[in-house]
Amino acid sequence: MDTRALKNPYRDYDGSSALTQPLFDSQGKLTPEFTQRLSSKVSELVGMMERGLVTADPRDCTTYTGLAGIALLYLHLHNVFKEASFIQKALDYVTRSLKCLTRRHDVTFLCGDAGPLAVAVVVYHRLQRPGEADECINRLMQYHQAVVKGSGDLPDEMLYGRMGFLYSLVFINQQLGQDRIPLQHIQQISAAVLESGERYSRKARVQNQSPLMYEWYREQYVGAAHGLAGIYYFLMQPGFTPVEESIHRLVKPSVDFVSRLKFSSGNYPPCVGDDRDLLVHWCHGSPGVVYMLLQAYKVFGVPEYLNDALKCGEVVWKWGLLKKGYGLCHGAAGNAYTFLALYRQTNDLKHLYRACMFADWCMNYGQHGCRTPDTPFSLFEGMAGTIYFLADLLQPMDSRFPAFEV
Question: Which residues make Cβ contacts (< 8 Å) with residue 151, sequence separation at least 6?
Fold first, then answer.
């Protein structure tokens, strides 16, 4: 493991109430003092972000680095704090986002036009403007057939591929009610992804090791953003894959293949065949693979998946405070979601404590000599993502890694 991380300065959880008393009680309920500290920091950072966004690219509509990501943050803040001003801000940013859609083949929630449209659906729904919400759903569904057919060499991964479009449909259903977009549309995409994975596995001659395989830019990526872990995470969601049998026949052995790539550290390589144990990011490494492992544990009940997920937590605790900063994609806030996912699965206060320590790190924003990202106020690279995490920590059992976790 190289030194892309700063040394973790915090005492690890030892079960003593002295350590946790200022943070939460024995039931995991945050103390009023810690809640107040999180809320105050959210307000302070929102002010800094708004001032900083004056210089942001007005033509970037995306959720990843652009206007739709800020709209998604305000939607989340409205969920958490119930303040009307936040939903108005969400409307403002998503309206601007819809005016500068890429109109290219980018069809994903994070990096394409599906994100702004899906966020707009939810904002309009919350403002009780059903006509505009329906119009955005219709515009979004115009991409559906092209995504299923895979026209224009569309990959299967999360950031630029089919799974990124699938998430847009899931996001709308989560927010508006499970059947707003019929499940068959999600299943059609999953079926196409399975077929694509089988085809490429045969082409790469790895079908005996992994019945599914995927590539992006001629590499077989492993992580959540471009790779196998992100794809399998969605294929294992209840009802997303049309034939239950294919989850056991195709997805489980493919998940096992990823599990076998684990380094002795407990971390995972960025690509199949890459033996460098370097990256501890949501996009590459343990902080993204953990979601696949936890979902596999929920679906198949094999203890080994949970053990491997817990090892991901150890990796993130040791190497998760990154020199790259405080962001979601490759920063401390995104890595902290590892602990929240483990906490929701196990109810073990150790993981909540670790999430609180990473939050403490994030609340000292800019004081650790980290790099400044290219888009310093955006959702996935910059300050907006950190704010999202700090607000999410207020309700740990409801937390979800934004634009990814179901």
Answer: none
- DSSP element (H, E) containing 183: helix 183-203
Going by C-alpha positions, the residue among 328, 311, 297 that lies closest to residue 391 is: 328
How much is the pTM?
Answer: 0.97
Summarize pLDDT for 118-161 with one digit per residue, the tens: 999 999 999 999 999 999 999 999 999 999 998 778 999 999 99
What is the distance between the alpha carbons of residues 82 and 401, in angstroms, rounded to a whole number? 20
- The span from the CA of 74 to the CA of 366, in Å, is 22
Q: If we measure between CA atoms, which residue out of 116, 25, 103 comes closest to residue 66? A: 116
User: pLDDT (tens digit, 9 = 90+) per residue, 197-217?
Assistant: 999 999 999 999 999 999 999
Q: Classify each residue of 49-87 as buried b or exposed e, where b means 16 or more C-beta atoms within 10 Å of its C-beta.
A: beebbeebeeebbbbbbbbbbbbbbbbbbbbbeeeeebb
* Residue indicated by tokens 């979004």: 140
